[in-house]
Amino acid sequence: MATITFIESDGTAHAIEAKCGWSIMENATKNGVPGIVAECGGSQTCGTCRIYVSAEWQTKMDSPTADEVSIIEFAEDRTPGARLSCQIEMKEHLDGLIVRMPEKQYSM
Predict the structure, then answer these.
(1) N or C: which end of the chain has fewer CB within 10 A?
(2) Which CATH class is domain 2-100?
(3) Cβ atoms < 10 Å from Cβ of 57
(4) Which of 102, 9, 90, 98 is nearest to 56 (CA)?
(5) What are the boundaries of each domain within the chain?
(6) Rounded to an integer, what distance in angstroms lies between the CA atom of residue 102 and that of residue 93?
(7) How far apart are CA 45 and CA 29, in angstroms?
């Protein structure tokens, strides 16, 4: 197990014990983290599981695919470090990950 901390736009933090092998989105939804809507269930088609990942953590993750980038580009609030949490697999080396969430999730 590893830890992920989700920070809402108002600063409210939700630290969870995350299961490695699950996506960050799966970990959030299965632990009741508010703000991760995940309308498409992780099929990378809606964009309602957006998170913002700091540069220090981005270097520890796989790069986003072209499909993920195309979904992110349609977001109304294009923020650096934006990712789809359904496309990031939780791994041991991401233990302690801190991500921020947008004020609102927009379906693409």
Answers:
(1) N
(2) alpha beta
(3) 17
(4) 98
(5) 2-100
(6) 25
(7) 17
Can you read off the two tokens belonging to residue 9? 């736009």
What is the distance between the alpha carbons of residues 88 and 24, in angstroms, rounded to a whole number?
6
Q: Report the half-sphere exposure of 30 (CA within 13 A, side-chain side).
A: 13
Residue-wise pLDDT tens digits, 44-75: 988 999 999 999 999 999 999 999 998 888 87
Q: Is the dihedral of CA 98, 71, 28, 59 positive or negative?
A: negative
Could you tell me if 67 and 43 are in contact, meaning their C-beta atoms sit under 8 angstroms apart?
A: no
Measured on CA atoms in the order 54, 12, 84, 27, is the torsion positive or negative? positive
Tokens 């913002």 sit on residue: 52
